[in-house]
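task queued by scheduler; priority normal; single chain, no ligands, no partner chains; default sampling; output format set to structure tokens
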Amino acid sequence: MMEHEYSRYSEGLIPPRPERIMAMEQYARDHRVPIMQLEGMEALLQILRVQRPGRILEIGTAIGYSAIRMAEALPGTEVVTIEREPAMQEKAEENIGRSEAEGRIRLVRGDALELEKLPEGPFDALFIDAAKGQYRRFFDIYEPLLSGRGVIYCDNMFMHGLSAEDPEDIPRKNRTMIRKLREFTEWLMAHPGYDSALLPVGDGLMISTKKESTEEGAAL
């Protein structure tokens, strides 16, 4: 069975989403809005159910799809999500207003790289799904807002397969972005404070958990 057949098979096992959620998925396809692939979204939701974060910070709202999916899958969890594009902000507000978790989702309007005032932490999960060439900057700015048990999730690590391509085979317009994404991936995998794993689901999902402190052990 080929890789795309596995993906089609696994997606076929996913139960239908509420009609308004499937309408958002169709809207994203029709208007070429980059939302999380269904297989990756379902995997992320299941991991979050295990983690049970009280507060999630999302970088990159788009139309509000993933923020809504996370909040509705985790009763009691608050989601703060940041979006810079005015058109996406308006569509996200509209979709959030129809969500069953409307009161637990807060949209921050602005560029996540240029906010004068950051959202108030701590957060138990940081979900990065915005400009792929800026993942390292997003990490540097928002990682300090994580709680002691905080987990970082990064989507689109495969960038539709381009991350694994020979640099000469990558379209010139994408080369800098892919180079930065690769550099971020390698840097995070070797980070002394985090254990990371790159999961081949959806378009590639990186999960990074804080390492246990070894200070006490080192002192013994």
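post-processing summary
- Residues 214-220 have pLDDT under 50 and may be disordered.
- The CA atoms of residues 190 and 196 lie 8 Å apart.
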